[in-house]
Amino acid sequence: MALNLNKDLKQYYSIAEVSEMFNLPASLLRYWEKEFPTIRPKKSGNNVRMYTKDDIEEIRLVNDLVKVRNMKLAAARELIQRNRQGAKNSSDLMARLTNVREQLVAIKKELDSIV
After folding, report:
1. So what's the pLDDT on residue 1?
2. DSSP 46
3. Contact residues for 7 (Cβ-Cβ < 8 A; gap 6+)
């Protein structure tokens, strides 16, 4: 999930942008706000959600626990409350390993096309 370099300069992201980053429906992001108190985007006068990079990191953590590892919401919430740093480190490691796997698959395809 690489962010566009121009978007990295942004301070706030819309719910549509965050939804696209994680390939999740906006309704699920709104639901997770209710279930995980650590996800708290700012809201403008029109109640438009504005996510910071910290909010996005929280969503990345919840997404890893719930969607990737198939944890129940209550278990994910408890793990985050009990051992936030451990859960984050584990999530970061999984993201790096997934990235390495994607690179290896791409290299294998290139090698297969040579042979």
Report:
1. 46
2. T
3. 13, 17
Whether pTM > 0.90 for this model: the answer is no
* 38-53: burial string, b at 16+ Cβ within 10 Å, e else: bbebeeeeeeebbbee
* Structural domains for the chain: 5-114 (1.10.1660.10)
Helices 84-114, 53-63: crossing angle, 10 deg rounding: 80
* Residue ranges in the chain modelled with pLDDT below 70: 1-9, 84-85, 87-88, 91
The CA distance from 25 to 27, in Å, is 5
**Which pLDDT score, from 0 to 100, does residue 79 have?**
84
Q: Are 12 and 52 in contact (CB under 8 A)?
A: yes
